Amino acid sequence: MVPRRNALPALRVRERSMCYLVVFLLLGSAIATLLLAAEVSAQEVEKKTETPAPTQAKLIEQANAPISDLLQIRFQDSYAPEFQGAHGQGNVFSINPIIPVPEFAAFPYTQLLSILIPAAITTPQGVTGFGDLKVLDFVLVSRDPEFVWGVGPVFLFPTATDRTTGQGKWQAGPAAGAAYDLGSLTIGVLAQNPMSFAGENDRSYTNFLILQPFATYQLGAGWFVKTEPSMLFNWRTHGKTLPVNLGVGRVFKIGNQTVNCFVEPFWNASNDGPAPRYGITFGFSLLYPNIYQSQ
């Protein structure tokens, strides 16, 4: 019998096509949910007094916290000129819409839909491609003015266009986070633990913790300093990535559009690889405060 040499590539193409279909359906459902929630919210807002626009201090706090009910679109580019465990340089450009779905009668909690789109990943081997898409559905259980916390599921989809830019696994897991407002200082943490349950058979099982502590200190006139390292703990290999970073940025307006810009150098305190040894991250966000009240 002649071996079917093209069976594996064909299977991977079918898996990737199915993955894209699921992602498109998910994004379509998210947009439909957002539009429905916006319509319901707008009807409810008409019955209430209009919510005042957030202060600049509140915008700085919300724009730099991974858990906040501020509609924003984040563009981020991280460049690493040197890697440990690999030769070469790397770069990751991502787009991250964060969409708050306001509470309404059917679901009395605010949801945050975070869609991390790794639009262009360049590996130390010189390969550039799309990465694995990550979706976080976070429910704000408590929205005290000084303390917020919530939980939700996180999903990773094997949308990478090359083996070196993704993990080739369908993943899901829990997420939890909290943020505390101390006036000029905001601190908090977001934890996510995706685990693989399906995908390419020749790829390793994945189970890792993404621990994201964050802190922002406001300097006045829209300026701030921040740190938001994304620490990675691989439960399967016991490897870890421990970046240390400190950045500076500002929230301001370009015409009528509120934006957030920052630059944040980082250094990896762990010796496990392959991982960036050091690098720099540039961020630019479009902010849309009180988007539902303006409906």
Number of strands: 17
What portion of residues is helical?
10-25%
CATH level-3 fold name: Porin
Uncertain stretches of 5 or more adjacent residues:
1-8, 40-49
Structural class: alpha+beta
What is the 3D form? globular
Mean pLDDT: 85
Under the CATH scheme, which architecture would be assigned?
Beta Barrel
Largest sheet: 12 strands, antiparallel, barrel
Distance between the termini: 66 Å
Number of domains: 1
Radius of gyration: 20 Å
Count of helix runs: 2
State the gist of this model.
Helices cover 16% and strands 51% of the residues. The protein has 2 helices and 17 strands.
Q: What does this protein structure show overall?
A:
The protein is an alpha+beta fold and 295 residues long. It has one domain: Porin, CATH 2.40.160. It is 16% helix and 51% strand. It contains two helices and 17 strands. It has a twelve-stranded antiparallel beta barrel with strand order 1-2-3-5-6-7-8-10-11-15-16-17. The chain is globular, with a radius of gyration of 20 Å. The N terminus is likely disordered.
Features:
295 residues; alpha+beta; Porin; 12-stranded antiparallel β-barrel; 2 helices; 17 strands; 16% helix; globular; disordered N terminus
Q: Which helices and strands, and how do they pair?
A:
Layout lengths: L6 H40 L9 H8 L7 E14 L5 E12 L8 E13 L5 E2 L3 E11 L3 E11 L11 E13 L3 E8 L2 E5 L8 E13 L2 E5 L3 E4 L5 E2 L1 E3 L1 E8 L2 E12 L6 E14 L7
Antiparallel strand pairs: 1-2, 1-17, 2-3, 3-4, 3-5, 5-6, 6-7, 7-8, 7-9, 8-10, 10-11, 10-12, 11-15, 12-13, 14-16, 15-16, 16-17
